[in-house]
Amino acid sequence: MRDRLVLLPGWGLGTAPLVPLMVALSGLDEHLRVQIEALPNLASVDPQDWLDELDARLPQDVWLGGWSFGGMLAAELAARRGEHCCGLLTLASNACFVARDGWPSAMPGATFTAFRAGCADDAPATLKRFALLCAQGAEDSRGIARRLAAATPAAQATSLVAGLDVLAALDTRAALQRFDGPQLHLFAGADALVPGEAAGALLEVLPDTEIGLLEQTSHAFVIERAHEVAAAIHAFLTEAGDD
Known about the structure:
Elements: E1 4-8, H1 19-28, E2 33-36, H2 47-57, E3 62-67, H3 69-81, E4 85-91, H4 109-121, H5 123-135, H6 141-150, H7 157-169, H8 173-178, E5 183-188, H9 197-205, E6 210-214, H10 221-224, H11 226-242
Parallel strand pairs: 1-2, 1-3, 3-4, 4-5, 5-6
Helix pairs in contact: 1-11, 2-3, 4-5, 4-7, 5-6
């Protein structure tokens, strides 16, 4: 099903942030079927449990993509499926969300620990703060933050914290290197959550892979620059489909 793209959203904010991108992609290619799938709602902190649910729920032989946390899960699922995944695209997704030895271009561990503690203590307040962080660096940061916050679904703190633990545990470098299909990775130059330097770091890991950096845009570039992101994705899918 090379005409079908499944997109996974980021942590905590639900599927709404990806709707503008889906609409923009549909406008570029009427034959492309784009579906947005919610992340698992699990209390488990084992990434394999999250991948097992996605693998069972999502159709085989489609393009997989995702924003931020969703892109990291899509990368792992693409590697698991191998030839049964048409290709992979990630949007503002770091190979490791939290900095570690060998991957400093990520969120400092102390910052993440404090954020996780805040989520466990007051999830609604943390989600509002997270919306602000996603929009930081955008031309209309307040407007985008309000859009993100207004569409955020209700969720239990247990599942949100578990998602953060999975996010912190993931290191997708091996999966990205193992997956032989076409890949596109787009980063945001003014991202407050995934440093723009991660694009260069990923290029060292995947020297023959298409990696792009959209300057002067925020982590929420799936909303802020939806048409530009859609155009890049459409060009990637077209080129890969011609190979």
